[in-house]
Write a structure and sequence with these properties.
The protein contains three helices and seven strands; from the N terminus they run αββββαββαβ. The protein has about 130 residues and is of the alpha+beta class. It has one domain: Pnp Oxidase, Chain A, CATH 2.30.110.10. The chain has a seven-stranded antiparallel sheet with strand order 2-1-5-6-7-4-3. A hairpin with a 4-residue loop joins strand 3 and strand 4. It is globular. About 25% of the residues are buried.
Length: about 130
Amino acid sequence: MTIVPESHLDLLERPIYGHFGTRRPDGFIQVNPMWFLWDGSHIRLTHTTTRQKYRNIAADPHVSLSVNDPDQPYRYLELRGTVVAVEPDPAGEFFQTLARRYSLDRSGPPGDAADRVVLVIEPTAVSFQ
């Protein structure tokens, strides 16, 4: 079962960039555009263990992801939740899955594949318009 309203599932199923927010050590929120995949119950993102955003999540796993409809900019979906798993992806396989989802011509794993992980987010709250 998901908390995502049926009326807004298309925003998770289409290859739209999400705006992913984490809390920095100084208390400010860091938001970056990110590729993502909705598996029906969790949001999955690719990231590396060498960046600040990963350190933010290690310190506080509460995150948010906002997606707006490029065809109707005031139509949006915001998911708030918790990173419930960090799965190693040392071959960059999930990165390549997302590259195909977003129709990017990428052959082979990224240069930072050895540091790649999959962030698994369980949504616990939602807002939408």
